[in-house]
Specification:
This protein has helices spanning about 20-30, 45-55, 80-85, 110-125, 135-145, 165-170, 190-195, 230-240, 245-260; strands at about 5-10, 35-40, 60-65, 90-100, 130-135, 155, 175-180, 205. By secondary structure, the protein is α/β, with parallel strands linked by helices. Strands 1-2-3-4-5-6-7-8 form an eight-stranded parallel β-sheet. The two termini are about 20 Å apart.
Length: about 260
Amino acid sequence: MSLPLVDIGLNLAHDSFDHDRDHVVGAAVEVGVAHMVITGSTLESTRAAIELVRTAPGRFRATAGIHPHHAREFHDPDVPELRELMSAPEVGAAGECGLDYFRNFSPHADQERVFRRQLELAVEVGKPVFLHQRDAHDAFVAILRDYLPQLAGGVAHCFTGETRELDDYLALGLSVGITGWICDERRGQHLRELVRRIPLDRLMLETDAPYLLPRDLEPRPKTRRNEPRYLPHILETVARCRGEPAGVIATATTRNALAFFGFAA
């Protein structure tokens, strides 16, 4: 298999990793996950992600942003700090940003306001965007279209949608991140067909750890906590669904991610 791999979505600052974070990273490296992108979803978690990158700058990159769940907590006085965080050399993308009308932890108006603000900042600092969308496709695309010509690029993080959503994202020039959702026999069957439609030069892999533990892992882990060491399992599933060698997928997704997030050569 052509390694190393890149996990483009890892919530490594999550408190579930506080007791064994170094071990989690080491276990991932042992199976070939050489690079990881640490997701920032609030100002606090972004600061923590950047601090983690500084512990191993060759291995990590961070994203800097406000998840739509937290949009109601973000206000204009917070913009200068977010701009500074997005501008940090440790940060490879703006986000996680977007819209989530499934949970609705923040009102739609707040989500849309904060999404637009982050897209404006991404344009300003010249970073691509790490995007989240759930049950808000039409509003999400309408807002994104206003900024795409000026953006440095975008990846639809943790894609779980249907054909129309994928086709729209591809038409907009986005890359697509696939997680262990594709391993879920209850919810992910449609992805096993759709993943074939993603051009190889726009495909990336992620765990979204500690969330979305692949359901078909054998032997089954003792806990439900997902980890970056399971990324090769996602790779194998994607390769099998696409009918391509795992090494081909590994080489392409790694190349895509290293370039997108600005890892040092």
